[in-house]
Amino acid sequence: MPDSQPQPPHSPSPSDSAGPGSLLLTGARLADGRTVDVRLHGGRIEAVGTAGSLTPRRAPGPGGRPYPGGHRDPDGHPDPDGRRDPGGHPGPGGRLDLGGYLLLPAPADPHVHADTALTADVPGPVSYDPEDVQRRATEAALLQLGHGATASRAHVRVGDVAGLGALTAVLRTRRSLRGLAELTAVAMPRVLTGVAGADGLAILRDAVKMGADVVGGCPDLDPDPTGYVEVAAEHGCPVDLHTDAADPARLARLAAMAGGLRPGVAVGPCDGLGRLPAEVVSRAADG
Question: Quick one: angle between helices 165-176 and 194-210, nearest 10?
Fold first, then answer.
């Protein structure tokens, strides 16, 4: 990495190890500018305090009890970091100085297409075979996890060619990633209006019963998208609608239609808003 680029702090060495899941992060800068210490234990944030206010967890003494008299090693010598246990191995109480580096919550991706992930360069039609979908969805989720994203919301096609197979694969992926990443499944039929819409409504209800977390759809393609809200209200689910949002009037109708379910309503990716005048966008946001 070039010298002009900021260097990340070194990871703790084995002698600085936090032992069984315990680590003190010092000098972390939060998004609001504060500098804090953060104590982690058991894979969770245990405490956040002003810089210098937290200490590592005490190393356990015989029988699992903390050593008396503060942080001291078994011979009674001061051990301010609490890093040594009776066997001389790293104990709970490792410390990592972040030196002012920015510390943020893990990012989340609110709009992914897990059923068609990693297919941009695949020639021919996309395979909706459940095994193929599960492999791609798992690989994509792990790639995101490798970049720090621990949660994503996956819009999955139901009905037509995909049937419920793609959703089944994504739900399997969700189960397999439990404890590593959180994958939320949005069932997304094509239309809910007219003769074709009757099938869409039926399969959307089946999708929710199977375990889909969110009711989704493409209201820009549906003459009467109220069915999405009706199914969501029936099952107590959030709604996440896939729209370009280039038509402020249509967006206002969507807002009015889903008003009773707020704040459990999301729309996206809304890239059309970028082509509208600022005052129109402001009114749409207020709606």
Answer: 20
Distance between CA atoms of residues 99 and 26, nearest Å:
7
Q: Which of 97, 124, 158 is the last residue of a domain?
A: 97
Domain encompassing residue 244: 108-286
pLDDT, tens only, 66-93:
444 444 444 444 444 444 333 333 334 5
- In a domain, residue 1? The reply is no
Task: Answer yes or no: is pLDDT of 172 > 70.
Answer: yes
Helices assigned H by DSSP within the chain? 130-146, 165-176, 194-210, 226-235, 248-257, 278-286
Of the candidates 208, 210, 248, 251, the one whose C-alpha atom is nearest the C-alpha of residue 232 is 208
Q: Give the strand order in the sheet containing 44-50.
A: 44-50, 35-41, 22-29, 94-97
Question: Residue 232's closest CA among 269, 192, 272, 194?
Answer: 192
The model carries a pTM of: 0.70
pLDDT tens digits along 27-52: 999 999 999 999 998 878 899 999 99
